[in-house]
Amino acid sequence: MFNRVTSFCRKVLNRDSKTRAIEDLKLEVIPRKAHGISRKGISENALKVLYRLHKAGFEAYLVGGGVRDLLLGREPKDFDIATDATPDEVKKLFRNCRLIGRRFRLAHILFGRDVIEVATFRGHHGKGEKDKQTARSEDGMLLRDNVYGTIDEDAQRRDFTVNGLYYNIADFSIRDYAGGLDDLNNRVIRLIGDPETRYREDPVRMLRAVRFAVKLDMTINSATAAPIVELAPLLQDIPAARMFEESLKLLQSGQGFATYQMLREYNLFQQLFPAVAAHFTEAQSSQTEQMLEQVLRSTDKRVVNEQRINPAFLFAAMLWYPLVTRAEEMAFESGLSYYDAFMVAASDIVDEQVKTIAIPRRFTAMIREVWQLQMRMTRRTGARAFKTLDEKKFRAAFDLLEMRGAVEGEETEALCAWWRDFQRADQSGRQKMVRAINKAHNTRKPKSRRRKGPPRRRKPQSNSDA
User: What is the pTM of this model?
Assistant: First the structure.
């Protein structure tokens, strides 16, 4: 199906090294009979928005990942729409519309939980009145971008060629301005325009390049990849709240481990998780690195099996060994008990991490609970084991203990096996297991001997007692 469009694609020489220069973009229109996109593959709500905009006299296009995924035979996760209608004009057409964003003004059309995002065509940044709608940082990052233009200008503002494809609801054709169909056929991720300039405008594009390459099983064009390692620190200037959303897209996509490996190769993961990156080794064999592989592969498996995923558990596992190292150092240097040092270190690690990725409080609270339960699971005497088992986050804590056992072996594996058996046992069996622990604990505990001292002097009786 997809190969039928090949004859309409622009052939580009040296496709492994060249970028798509903005000034070289040329429109190719692929008629309906020459491509495989059918309206049956587009969500009913997206079609409603497209048709209403078209009927009101506006241009309306399905754009970006929706078009790309349909051409690749994938089921799109989102359907985004581009139009020449301004956000205020879109709002007048749809009572279920909400305008969002300051940096990029967007319209969200709400159909229950389904959200169709509508963006007005972006224009070029010029001088004069338009400059009131745009702003850049000293490094070239776009801080505000509400300059509107034509579809031709909008195509030049798109990030990657494979996302620069427009499906026209007016005649069901595809408009390709940047050779995106050609790059889809050749499985190449390529930036439109000068890579360094585009990355400085929005450093998150470096993360998107990696995410698309892994997700779509494509190769990043060499010119697109070249500046990433050097420009990776620009990610530190991105708001931490935005980085939280991006981190979930990267690590909970179903290809989290492969994404992590590529992020690390391009010096990007190091910007997102500096406390974790401090434990990286050349052999990639540290306990932190082993845990990363454990938890990311497990997350990938759960995504494939459509099982529930909690970001808090992912972060708790990733940050576990940086926490342990910090706690040990703190206990040694300050003289605090290990438990007290552990609790202080837990707060420090979380506080440092939220500076780069703004993990919401509901997740940081769970992270701390899971960590604290690692300590409690080592204490099983008396009623402690039963109380620990009743904790709401016990299952998550046990999953982390299992991963630790795979990394640490020996004592941790034995502790994990005990808790596994304890969960499976009935009440009588659990009591028997605890009694065995109590007996072993009492056997190991040395009996305290009372030191003999001078005989106590009897307190003299008062006159009233005589």
Answer: 0.83
